[in-house]
Amino acid sequence: MKNKNNKYFEVNKETWNKKVSIHSKSEFYDIEGFKKGKTSLNTYELDEVGDVQGKTLLHLQCHFGQDTLSWSRLGAKCTGIDLSDEGIELAKKLNLEMGLDATFIESNLYDVPKNVSGEFDIVFTSYGVIGWLPDLKSWGEIIASKLKKGGIFYLVEFHPVVWMLDFLETPPKLAYPYLNIDVIYEEYKGTYTNNDADIISKEYGWNHGLGEVVTALTMAGLEIEFLHEFDQSPYNVFPEMEATDNGMFLLKKEQRLFPLVYSIRAVKK
User: Fold this and answer.
1) Has residue 1 been placed in a domain?
2) 86 lies in which domain range?
3) Cis omega (within 30 of 0) for bond into 113
4) Of 225, 265, 25, nearest in space to 143 by CA
5) Residue 19 belongs to a domain with what CATH number?
6) Is residue 21 domain-resident?
7) Is residue 22 one of the residues assigned to a domain?
8) Which residues on neighbouring strands pair with residue 188, listed in sequence order?
9) Could you tell me which residues come within 8 angstroms of residue 165 by beta carbon, excluding any fewer than 6 positions away?
10) GO molecular function of the protein, one example (predicted)?
């Protein structure tokens, strides 16, 4: 897997390394508020994962570890992985500064079996993760291999219909396939936290429909407990979104034709 897609992973790693310094200073991630006790977790995952006190948790594709550390604050024994060495370095610094006991490991997701030992009560991953993965069959198998019997996997992610749109166009244009047909390359100025940031984001990604996600998990031996779809996003990451009274965001009324977010909880029987 890694050999075949190595050039894509290398470009993505370079881009994410550049993003760390921008994201860490952004209002979006609000590191100072986070250090003072603000959680980075949202209502969906807090409600649907449940009590993590005393449980071991593996966080896949953790960026610079805020969600990992938020779960740690709630009593989980956490391990976070990410392909960005800059992200992992910052995560380790935050962990030390905040006096928490999370473990952070630099690793491509597909190298988790050789880089992360043991099994976990919970495997967690969230928001903008699936699209960096060319092969979900291996993804599902890795998740299953890292779960204890009775352990749960939880994913909350932007809906695959969202990724069919090119948000670099105004208004957003239907541009990409729903199914995983081929790698998609995008190059643009800025990043989702700062549109005017002095960075050229170069990214290779893959679109995956809900059927592919569910099948990858069930074929790996996991049992789906639920698949939920939501029309509200906890993040204001799409153009001209409207804030709701509960702190979520909606597309403009005339664009409100599809879900923005979905979640899956599965168990290893």
Assistant:
1) no
2) 6-268
3) no
4) 265
5) 3.40.50.150
6) yes
7) yes
8) 201
9) 172, 173, 174, 175, 176
10) 3-demethylubiquinol 3-O-methyltransferase activity
Q: What is the 3-state secondary structure (H, E, C) of 152-190?
A: EEEEEEECCCHHHEECCCCCCEECCCCCCCCCEEEEEEC
Closest residue by Cα to residue 94 from 82, 102, 106: 102
Give the pair of three-digit tokens for residue 238: 């799409």
Counting the structural domains of the chain, the total is 1
Q: How many CB atoms lie within 10 A of CB 185?
A: 11
CA 103 to CA 81: how far, in whole Å? Answer: 9
Tokens, residue 231: 């029309």
Q: What is the pTM of this model?
A: 0.95
The full length of the chain comes to: 269
The string of pLDDT tens digits covering residues 107-150 is 999 999 999 999 999 999 999 999 999 999 999 999 999 999 99
Q: In one letter, which amino acid is 191? A: T
